[in-house]
Amino acid sequence: MNPVYNIYRDFNYNFVNGPFYKTDKTIKISNPIKLWDYTIEAPIGIGAGILLNSKWVELYSNLGYSVLTYKTVRAYKKKALSMPNCLFVNYDGGLVTSNMPSNKNNISITNHFGIPSQDPEFWMEDVEISVNKLKKNQILILSVFGETRRELLRCVEMAAETPAHAIELNVSCPNVSSDLILDRNLLIKIRNTVRVPLLIKVGYPTQEFENYIKPLLCFIDGLSMINSLKINNISLCGALLYNKLIEAIKRYRTITSLPILAMGGINSKDRVLEVLNLANVAMFVTAAIFDPLIGSRIFK
Ligand SMILES: Cc1cc2nc3c(=O)[nH]c(=O)nc-3n(C[C@H](O)[C@H](O)[C@H](O)COP(=O)(O)O)c2cc1C
């Protein structure tokens, strides 16, 4: 099967021509849970990154994923960084790039996009189109970003005007520069703007980060984790992240009982089941590019 996202073409090509997996079938995966005030048809979803626009949301909604995250948007239009945006990676003492591994369970890739965005006029309408494509008991999370406090707040204000079911603050992308400090005052302003559940997307926790986020947890409704991990200056996603994800969830569980949407190398039924013992929803990103039907095999 061809990957749904073509890593050999640029972001705009994928945005316009993708997704590269077509199906007329819709798959129903039923294993309902409660998440905030929503009933969710199954505790599996797609994390921020590969739902580039409403066509991609529609595909993964048809494939039965219940929690769908619209790729991070900004308060203004921004082009993606030039290619290569994604390369296959093997861990071999150091990191080496390679061809696609034959075993899907070994796929790890780099992620180097720099958070591109359409202009708000486009994405606000497209989020509405996306929500209208969802099936019963599916939700759409809108991921937002700003390089400064002002930009983030502006983006949140526009996101809050869309019918997205939840908003996720992407404050952990390792390949953008930002002087944003998500402090109490900013978060209170954001909280007062957002009427739906509010999530923070975090990376692998350092002690310093844990201390910083602890007093902010009372203003949010959940955590998404983990973002790509920077190793040797490369932003890594996929299979290699899995142990870090499990460590991260266990550490965050010692400081909060908020819902956790987990992602980072989840690419098999065993991993989904292990994650669901610790977190509320298992999310796929890299695995869903190369194995879009993975979700439908979990709850048979
Ligand atoms: C192609 C690609 C694009 C991504 N874009 C975003 C993004 O826009 N916003 C974000 O918060 N994370 C983004 N990520 C990170 C993922 O959401 C996720 O945190 C990370 O890839 C770990 O999950 P995985 O191992 O299942 O890929 C991206 C990852 C990939 C592979």
Please describe the structure with a list of short key phrases separated by commas or semicolons.
single chain; 300 residues; alpha/beta; TIM Barrel; 8-stranded parallel β-barrel; 3-stranded antiparallel beta sheet; 10 helices; 15 strands; 21% strand; globular; binds flavin mononucleotide
Describe the structure.
There is one protein chain. The chain has helices spanning 11-17, 54-62, 120-133, 149-160, 184-193, 207-213, 242-253, 269-278, 286-290, 294-298, and strands at 33-35, 38-40, 44-46, 67-73, 88-92, 94-98, 108-110, 139-144, 166-170, 198-202, 222-225, 229-231, 234-238, 260-262, 281-284. It is α/β, with parallel strands linked by helices and 300 residues long. The chain is globular, with a radius of gyration of 18 Å. A hairpin with a 2-residue loop joins strand 12 and strand 13. The chain has an eight-stranded parallel barrel, surrounded by five helices. The two termini are 21 Å apart. The chain has one domain: Aldolase class I (TIM Barrel). The structure holds flavin mononucleotide. The site of flavin mononucleotide (FMN) has 28 residues, from strand 4, strand 13 and helix 9.
